[in-house]
Amino acid sequence: MMLSQSFPALAVGNTEGHWQKEEGAWTFINPQGEKQKGWIVSEGAWYLLKEDSGILQSGWWKSPSGKWFFFHTAHDGSFGRLCTGWQWIDGYCYYFEDQDSAHLGELLTAGAKDGYSVDEDGRWVENGKPVYEQGKGLLSKEDGQQVAGVSRSIPEVLGVNRSSSGGSGRSSEGSSGRSSGSGSDSVSNSTNSQQPSTEKQKEDAEKKAREEKEKEEQEKKEQEEQEKKEVFSVLEREHSGLVNLGFDKYIVLSFKEGRPEDYKVEVDGTDITEALTPIDTAGKLWKWESTVVSPKNLTISKKDGGEEKEILSLNAGEAKAAPASSFESSGDLSLVIKGKVTKEELNYPSVQAGRERTKESRTTFDLSEQEEKGIPITYYFKAFPVDFKGENNGKPIKYELLAETEEQKKWFDGIDSISSLSEGSIYGLGNKNASLQFTKEAVHKTRHGELGVVNIPAGQENLRSKGWYKVKIHSSYDDSTLTIPLELVSQDKLVLQQAPESSTPKQGETIRFMAEVPGRMYLSEFGEPSSKLVLKKPDGSSQKLEYLKDFYYYDGALLLYGKRKDEEGSLLTDQAGQYVLTVKLNGYGKIKQRFEVFAGEAKEEQDEKEEKARQKDGEKDRGSFDAISHATSREVLTKKKPDLSDLPKLGEGEDKYLALSYDLLSNALLLREMGISNPDADLVAARFLRSRGEKYFLPEEGEKFYDFTTYFAAYKDKAAKGGETLSLAEFLTTAEALSRTPSSFYRILEDGSLSKELRTEYLTGKKAPKFNGGVAQPGENIVLEIEKTEDREYLKEGEIKLYLEKQSYNNKIRPDFIEITEEEGKIVISPKAFKGKAEGKHTLILVRKGYQTLELPLSFEEAVEKLPEEKTEDNKEKTEEKKEEKKEEKTEEKKEEKIEVKKEEKTEDNKEKTEEKKEEKPEEKKEEEKSEKKETVAEEKKQEETDNSSDVSRGEKENKKPVGKEKPEKKKIIDSSSKPTVKKKKHHKRDVMELSFPGEDEEVVDSYLRSLTGISVNRIPYTETLSSSLKEKEYYLERDSEDRRSTVLLSPESFTKATNIISMKAEGQSMALKAYTDEQA
């Protein structure tokens, strides 16, 4: 099994040690006298040492992730070297990735490179057939030539060390060489001069090699015998083992079934079960941060202490030190890196429940999620002419969207918001309108197919200037977004006039056109990459023109060069006759200019000033323009979240500080190392691996940043000595804090997307306390209350500042609009603080020195949901039963009345009596409804009194049967005679609240808990977790010895000293329980 067979992004140093030949095979011995295994590099070339024997790999090799590589087989000084670029092997030509990246050396299959295509086996093909030249290139097996000397080393990169052992590192500076002399088979990476080997040294080396080989064979034999005895197997070994991230080591466990708490997990005799943390949301993959450099064995046994065990050998470790079960916790560590981000990412942060996000919701990855394919939508639009106000005589901007499938139609019907972003600047925030007004025309048949039309009124804010825009259309159908282009063009026309001095241009002469637009002095648009000029020649052929080489804008004129400004200097106007020049400038409509070129020899002088200006312009970065993504019609896919394709291309984007959870990053890199593909993890890992420059980390609730690169160096130094590894907590005892730190950052979220821009105070300081409330009816005060009494000091007078929507002077809430009482732990906000907008959703920002900045959601709602609703489910059922009874009684009365009417004679008196009876019925109905309401209110009061008299209670359903017709009794899942109980207990060294069902049938409880769809405590929703180590607002379903779900463990932070309401929703039965803390009980 190999977990480390992939490449880092950069190579930075050589492996210390020397090469040694054993029975005709090459191995590498590190400074500890051990055989090096895994990847090593020297003088820019990679080599691979086999994991089982340490022997140098040659020929074809397939990695655990399924990628093919090839290592030189020729003994010409390159034996064992990783092949890159185009290579002939056994008569076929293959391409191996040659860029220094994570994919270096990978075989290209079913693709194209440098204009050549390869088939699914990687062979170069022409006309669909592989090109074969017998005897050409390397052999797939090594040849018999003499071995030449080589020097080899291993690279590392901050964040990912792909070496499969801990013995790698940098060599000292200086030259490295191979020992000479026929009596030596050893090559050493050393700056010392080489000494000829002696017979005694040779004998010693051979003896040592034999002993090591015997030892390896014995260990292998013992391992095979042990595996034969093993019947008990719970791990998927392909994805289990020791993984080295360079700055940390982890043991990864992939469970076939069950979870860690079902077993006892040990490393070299130390129980690490409770120190395991999840990698994925399903609870299949778990990790343990290794506290020692070289752990030897992982042992898993049944929790009940049975004799059956599974033993996993860890990378041939030696167990030099008994490991600690875990490091001293450094808390929720944050890592800050500098990465490239796009303008679109800066303008469109991740949004959840209508609010821009500030932090990740989890640090695990959902491996059940597949790469989002999206819904294909074909769009049509035309460049839209606008005046100086951005309008066009009342006409709207129009998009036509093809909607022929049911899914496309549902997506169109679900369109609920549209936004726009200008493309005028390469970097920074653009002109954005996050909420454009729009209307829709229903899908209808046209000659182009079934189309839905979106109309956007012109002249809206930040959508008035000419140029290109990105328009994002969001649909509530699947919460996805369609990104399409828009071009606004000026109603003013570009005018080109051939200058008199260029009236009779000869072949190869420069032609001068005066370029004018009303009100414009200088037309910089000629130099923009989005502008397009095409020249049609007399023979009908067309050529796209290139700025600075084929044309140039200078001194108010467009200069069309008859002779190209390149090394070849080929003629552009090489034909005599009529030409047509088509010009499409960014923000202007397309125009055509006709002119004639005459036969003859070009005679013109060079304008030195113009040439200097042209060369100076050539040094500027003009950016790029993707014509495909700006097409007026094409098919694109909707997207729910970003992926790797959304990251900036190399050399593009803007440098920004990005903060991310250390645990989130570790999980992403571990999945990457194990070859498990997940789009979210891939994006998180890519952001880190593509980062450059300084890297900082911040301990939980810390106020000072520390240099991560310095920690990385210290970690490697201690690892080289063996024994215990360096923990961050240990490093902090001597580390110096940084004086210069970022002032703002963007948070990397669990799907790799970015939060909005945040000040550093969102990271530094203590965690702010949790608040309840924040919802009010329009016109009422909004009240927020701190959950825990001990946190009320946070509201100390004069220490806290409150802002609405964003942290700025104009958004600070006036003191006379708020009331803060530290004693009660309350914040009361007047509707006046919202400046006439006391409706809908808002965001409150709390800033206090020494604490992390906190954002809280506020909202004004017409009707506030009341907690007792769920508690009175039984009362509602009683009311429904009573209504059913009365309804049936009325039906019987009406039947009797009809019979009586039929028996009576049809006289006027009888008719009058019938009318009187009909008039009496509405009055009787009103009286019955009043009586019914009174009875319901009385029942609710009685139920509430019953609830208040017990610690935990539920309304009991009555078994009344309706009169006249027997109603089947509703099946109960949980018997009402039992009373669930809630109590505080210790679990994994922390307080949790335990909800149990004493006296209830175990199978019924298990069935009910299996069908749970949600739990909330005091209206605060909880999320189910597969780890019994509860985090905030999580619940865990605990099992009994028969593997039945029996109790619910809840994190305690949402419980108060007042009455607590636990709402449980399940298929078939929902309950609202009233619970108290131990102090009340």
Helix and strand arrangement:
Elements: E1 18-22, E2 25-29, E3 38-42, E4 45-49, E5 59-62, E6 68-71, E7 85-89, E8 92-96, E9 111-113, E10 116-118, E11 124-126, E12 129-130, E13 177-178, E14 186-188, H1 199-229, E15 241-244, E16 249-254, E17 263-267, E18 270-271, E19 277-278, E20 285-289, E21 297-302, E22 309-313, E23 334-341, H2 343-347, E24 351-352, E25 355-356, E26 376-380, E27 384-386, E28 396-402, H3 406-413, E29 415-422, E30 432-433, E31 439-446, E32 449-457, E33 467-475, E34 480-490, E35 495-498, E36 511-516, E37 532-536, E38 542-544, E39 551-554, E40 557-560, E41 577-584, E42 591-597, H4 608-617, E43 633-637, E44 654-661, H5 662-673, H6 679-689, E45 695-698, E46 706-707, H7 708-720, H8 728-732, E47 744-748, E48 754-759, E49 771-773, E50 775-776, E51 782-786, E52 800-804, E53 818-821, E54 826-829, E55 840-848, E56 854-860, H9 868-871, H10 873-903, H11 908-948, E57 981-987, E58 990-996, H12 1002-1010, E59 1012-1017, E60 1020-1024, E61 1034-1039, E62 1045-1050, E63 1060-1066, E64 1071-1075
Parallel strand pairs: 27-34, 44-47, 50-56, 60-61
Antiparallel strand pairs: 1-2, 1-14, 3-4, 5-6, 7-8, 9-10, 10-11, 11-12, 13-14, 15-16, 16-20, 17-18, 17-21, 19-20, 21-22, 23-44, 23-45, 24-25, 26-28, 26-43, 28-32, 29-30, 29-33, 31-32, 33-34, 35-36, 36-40, 37-38, 37-41, 39-40, 41-42, 45-46, 47-48, 49-51, 51-54, 52-55, 53-54, 55-56, 57-58, 58-62, ...
